[in-house]
Amino acid sequence: MRKEDCFYLGKIAKKFSYKGEVLAYLDTDEPGLYENMESVFVELNNHLVPFFILESRLHKNDFLRIRFEDMDSEEAADRILGCELYLPLTALPALEGNKFYFHEIIGFTAEDKRLGNVGIITGVNDNSAQPLFEIKKGETEILIPMIDDFIIKVDRENKTILLDTPEGLIDLYLS
Question: Which of 94, 136, 169, 175 could be a cystine partner for 165, CB 3.0 to 4.6 Å?
Fold first, then answer.
């Protein structure tokens, strides 16, 4: 499995028992969706390796207590401490309406209610307090905050996102 075909789920945070159980921090708003997984990919030495789950349950809201197949000691658990967990993109629940996954909108056309075609969404910058659409128009990169009030419609069929940005925001990049 290639990393590009997967999404980051979380990481192995700490050991839980002397029997090899671990606690995984899940980077999701709905950890309960991942409580009954059969397997997960663990990144070891830059390779995604499938690990099969014998048992898992939620632990203190954000953590998942996991007992992996063939892992029955603290030493075995030590080998995966700090490793990242991934699942195939196909395992993501489908979103509807104006909700979307960041990877899903790459390649969509961004259109503004007043200005028309703004450009192509090439990525999402989520390194700041407010995620930003990264939009390419010719050689110019335009950054637009991902604010619910700016997003009028996500049209998956036509691969467009209709925005209503404040006057002057996009003009800053185009002048």
Answer: 169
